[in-house]
Recover the amino acids of this structure.
């Protein structure tokens, strides 16, 4: 298999850096005019490299639903300014000064910091300062007749955080006040003065344009013939957004360039490429354009350029959930480890160049939606990133070494799956299944997971033309009726009373990941076995919370129990 890593040396990280620099010049907020402009740039680069693409156009209008997500409003930033403690922040310095989707408005007055619920009693006629739960806090600031809203985020230091409101058209009925963001350091200075009894005043100006609609762009390309390995990356996020996610979008261009030159008809897979606005574009693509039977697996590229020294990042591989077990996780893991060699131990064994680790399924990007719809999907990502969602996510923080590692490993994975001999793939599939089960088996029983691994290998075998695993009769406990990302916002749209409870139950993000995996398992296994498989996959889970959440989903019609 190592020969495919040698072939992958044609991957050029310098091209990726160039594309990151170009893409990060666009303020790629969902619903804004610069998002489709960034997609047009990518499409032109593909044309130059001889890659034919299709541009599907849906729309942001604040009311159209894509599966479980209602699109945000069409919105563009014109200008914004904040004057606070003698400092002046403007959108010419960073567009992040104005929160995405904020209405226009001007305000001047005293600042009140919301540290506890009682603080809202002092917020009328004031400018609210909040450091968490921004959407809910912004809504409440409107309800209590605050003048304006200032957000900050812990851990961002002197950087301006990216915080989006993602307002819908209905929400414009109550969303009236301007919303801005300031660095944590400035917010802490304000809080210090307020806590010592001083009065702090702020002056805010926001000018934005709320439009009837804007294009929601979905850029798609195919090389060769189906079945396809599909590569995805979200193109949205604010300027600069170099690592998140100009990096994934840029890497996708380079992979398309290389694979377009390498593909021939002897390959068992063709290759498809998808640039989308995160989640909204993915759900629109699946609902309206995707022929899911054409895809063997998905490799999602999100934040693939984080630096170990500056951003503090680790290269992560997020495996498929066990309900969608596939050897694709193992092949990418293998090549990431092999590509990461640098230097030798005292006895000559290769040493890792960068921090690298594989993880069980985690939610947070476009791989989620494809997994929900039955396509095994993995994600390569760098995390944490101390510049995440901030004005400091600039190209000087990205790592060429990380780009080379992930890019070459992903390319080698595609080539190995498309070209390796059947006996190689069969041996690898057996070895990876043993490794996966062995890792879990050190801590707990794996009876139910073993069955799911066999089911996944049986699916792999049909695509890879090998003989591994076997199918089992499915005995579903539930039907996931309204598939897609399940969020507190979605619950609120269906049942206002259930919103607070759902939000409280899923405050720990792990619970939300466990819930979505439980629904996938529930379409394969009886209830008790689904919960057993979940605990075999993740270890201890909060069964009581998950059972209550499933009850809520049944009541709202998102799932049906069989």
């Amino acid at each position: 298999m190592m020969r495919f890593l040698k072939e992958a040396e044609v991957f050029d990280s310098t091209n990726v850096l160039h594309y990151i620099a170009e893409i990060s010049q666009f303020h790629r907020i969902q619903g804004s005019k610069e998002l489709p402009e960034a997609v047009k740039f990518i499409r032109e680069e593909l044309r130059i490299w001889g890659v034919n693409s299709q541009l599907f156009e849906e729309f942001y209008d604040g009311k159209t639903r894509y599966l479980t997500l209602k699109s945000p409003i069409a919105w563009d930033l014109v200008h914004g300014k904040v004057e606070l403690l003698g400092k002046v922040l403007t959108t010419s310095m960073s567009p992040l000064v104005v929160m995405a989707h904020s209405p226009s408005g001007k305000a001047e007055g005293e600042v009140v910091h919301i540290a506890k619920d009682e603080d809202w009693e002092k917020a009328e006629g004031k400018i609210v300062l909040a450091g968490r739960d921004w959407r809910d806090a912004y809504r409440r600031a409107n309800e209590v007749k605050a003048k304006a809203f200032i957000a900050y985020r812990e851990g961002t230091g002197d950087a301006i955080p990216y915080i989006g409101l993602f307002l819908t058209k209905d929400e414009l009925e109550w969303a009236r006040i301007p919303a801005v963001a300031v660095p944590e350091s400035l917010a802490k200075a304000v809080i210090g003065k307020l806590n010592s009894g001083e009065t702090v005043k702020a002056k805010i100006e926001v000018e934005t344009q709320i439009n009837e609609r804007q294009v929601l762009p979905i850029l798609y390309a195919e090389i060769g013939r189906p079945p396809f390995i599909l590569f995805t990356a979200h193109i949205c996020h604010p300027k600069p957004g170099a690592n998140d996610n100009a990096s994934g979008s840029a890497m996708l261009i380079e992979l398309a360039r290389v694979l377009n030159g390498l593909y021939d008809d002897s390959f068992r897979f063709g290759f498809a490429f998808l640039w989308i606005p995160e989640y909204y574009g993915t759900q629109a693509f699946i609902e309206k354009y995707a022929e899911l039977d054409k895809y063997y697996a998905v490799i999602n590229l999100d934040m693939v350029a984080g630096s170990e020294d500056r951003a503090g990042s680790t290269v992560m591989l997020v495996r498929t959930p066990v309900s969608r077990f596939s050897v694709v996780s193992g092949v990418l893991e293998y090549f990431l480890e092999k590509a990461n060699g640098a230097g030798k131990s005292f006895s000559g064994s290769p040493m890792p160049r960068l921090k690298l680790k594989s993880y069980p399924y985690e939610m947070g990007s476009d791989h989620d939606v494809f997994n929900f719809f039955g396509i095994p999907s993995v994600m390569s990502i760098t995390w944490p990133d101390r510049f995440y969602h901030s004005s400091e996510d600039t190209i000087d923080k990205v790592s060429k070494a990380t780009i080379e590692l992930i890019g070459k490993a992903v390319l080698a994975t595609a080539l190995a799956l498309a070209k390796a001999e059947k006996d190689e793939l069969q041996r690898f599939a057996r070895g990876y299944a043993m490794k996966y089960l062995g890792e879990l088996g050190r801590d707990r029983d794996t009876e139910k997971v073993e069955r799911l691994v066999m089911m996944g290998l049986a699916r792999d075998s049909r695509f890879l033309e090998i003989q591994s695993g076997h199918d089992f009769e499915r005995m579903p406990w539930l039907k996931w009726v309204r598939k897609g990302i399940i969020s507190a916002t979605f619950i609120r749209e269906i049942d206002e009373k259930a919103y607070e409870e759902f939000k409280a139950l899923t405050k720990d993000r792990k619970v939300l990941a466990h819930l979505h995996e439980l629904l996938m398992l529930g379409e394969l296994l009886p209830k008790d076995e689904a919960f057993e498989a979940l605990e075999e996959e993740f270890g201890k889970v909060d069964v009581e919370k998950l059972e209550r959440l499933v009850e809520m989903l049944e009541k709202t019609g998102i799932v049906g129990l069989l």
